[in-house]
Amino acid sequence: MKEYTIEKMKTKDYFKCDNIWNMEECEHTKIWEEEIKEGSRIVYVYKYEGEFLGECDVVVKKEGIAFPEQQAFLSKLIVKKEDRNEGIGTALLNFLLTLYKKKGYSYITLEVNKDNITAVNLYKSFGFEITEENEEDFLKMTVEL
To answer: What is the pTM (predicted TM-score) of this model?
Structure first.
């Protein structure tokens, strides 16, 4: 595996995530940027030679949404298309679960499209269990830390 770092992204570097996903086409980009600025969304990036290859976003609080104490929400885990299947998603998820357990969190929850079999299998390999299936074809999954 490549020599890499995973680190908390600085707000001023958010534009670099465009290397991973098309920020211009995403309707949520501005909202997520505001959440990063206010501190409710924390972004961790997988960097190789200074380039962002993967990203995971954690939401710990959000106006209008009640988060149970000691529970975080994994909002996004994405790897640059050309760099998928190289262990980057696994590295990000391992980093995240270890970090949030050290921070004293008890659970991580996420939602994933049930047709995204690769992601569902990755989450299951880390102990996530399906806790709910909604009408829009999304699965809610949770892991105890």
So the answer is: 0.90
